[in-house]
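A quick word before the example. In earlier lectures we treated sequence and structure as two separate objects. From today on, think of them as two lines of the same record. Here is Molybdopterin synthase subunit MoaD written that way.
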Amino acid sequence: MNAEAEVLFFGNLTEVTGESSIRLWDVEDTDSVEQIVLNRYPELRKQMYLIALDRQLIHTNRLLKNNHTIAFMPPFSGG
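And the structure line, produced from the sequence above:
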């Protein structure tokens, strides 16, 4: 069963995409979300970004269930 997900863009990524959020249907995992986003916004390929799933940074593909939130965020530094 594929899922529905909200995708958020932060920082300069909102300027690149022209969106602060979009909704995707029929997505299986975070890799498929990333591919859809990169196909829709090819300029994003030139940007560095991190991906979070439900407010947790992820570094590997994750399966999705309904109503996840996936965020594309520029790299950040903290102290």
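Notice the following. The domain at 3-73 is CATH 3.10.20.30 (Ubiquitin-like (UB roll)). We will return to this example when we discuss secondary structure assignment.
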